[in-house]
Amino acid sequence: MDAFKIGMHGDQKCSNCNSETGHKLTKGLVQKLCYRFFVLGTIHKCDYGGAPLIQFNEQRYNQSDIDVPSQLADDVKLIEKAGEIGLFYYGPRLWMLGHIEPLKSLQNDQEKYKIIDRILKVYPIRELTESDTFYRLRQNPEKPYSVSEYDAAPHKKSNWNRLDSNGFSILYGSQDLELCIHECRVSVEDSIYVSKLSSTRTLKLLDLTELIDETGVTEFDSLDIAIHFLFLAGKHSYEICREIALKAYERGLDGIIYPSYFSYIKTGHIPFDTVYGISIRKMPRLKEYAKSQIIPNLALFGRPIKDGKVKVDCINRVLINRVSYDVTFGPVSHKSYSGKTNDKV
């Protein structure tokens, strides 16, 4: 299926089987197919960060040394031959697996507030003006016509999300409606409503989606990558995120702009993208490309609709007419890292 998707239709003969039908793969397309299946298909996520288990290059041609199920053995040989490449187990640099000093400090009760203070100093403050609109989605609200349904609601601890906590409510929103729908985990059985919101005055938000300037700083000491990994992490990261939100509130800010956990599903880009083991976020010429991979969400502190900071411009019912998935594949079984990692040096 993947080969058919990227292959070229034509009546020229296949150099492998001499078939004149079907979709053909050039050397470059074979390498692309290998990348999609064996590299992207083996990305292993850690608590923070992640890396592919398998890589390939032309220097390893005829020297593939990965273990695969028997049904893949002939395919690997054919891919190696047609792409003139060799596959091998990848030993990632440790920063890719979350070994980043600011990130470690954020997980340390004695050190985290020093890093949070640094975050509040280094990251820019953005203004949300009256001309900026965003969306707030609700599933099965009791009174969908009531504007109060679209404010931040007080809730129990079991329902806390990434940034809200006991006695500290957050209104979550996004300027991307499709992302709102996905983040709320809606189903076709739900009654779904969306409000379009705007601020009634200029609000000041801490922008954690910005790529900060860290000239001369490696990935191992990068605050930028630490924050990037933090918001790509699951529920185990929430306590740290909540601490950042509370400190931003104490500094008088109105909210936070933060990267959506589902950014890469929306943009179709590759998480933890590198070039020769160097994060693309450290490459000035790729800064805008790296920035384009992130979809920003909004988190406004307190109950801004009740407080008059935000108003509801309109409310509409949402109908899901069609859902589409863009999928690729990967091998079922493969080895773990087995300690094959490159150290900081």
Largest sheet: 5 strands, mixed
Q: Quick one: how many beta strands?
A: 16
Query: What is the SS-derived class?
Result: alpha+beta
Global geometry: globular
Put simply, the count of helices is 10
N-to-C order of helices and strands:
HEEHEEEHEHHEEEHEEHHEHEEHEE
- Unreliable stretches covering 5 or more consecutive residues: 336-345
Based on the structure, what is the oligomeric state of the protein chains? single chain
In words, what does this structure look like?
The protein is α+β, with helices and mostly antiparallel strands. The chain has helices at 2-6, 27-39, 70-83, 101-106, 112-122, 177-183, 223-231, 238-250, 263-267, 287-292, and strands at 8-9, 23-24, 43-45, 50-52, 54-57, 86-89, 125-128, 133-139, 170-174, 192-199, 203-207, 255-259, 274-275, 278-279, 296-301, 310-318. It has 2 domains: 2-90, no CATH class; 101-318, no CATH class. It contains 10 helices and 16 strands. A 5-stranded mixed β-sheet has the order 7-11-12-15-9. It starts with a helix and ends in a 27-residue tail after the last strand. Mean pLDDT is 91; it is low at 336-345.
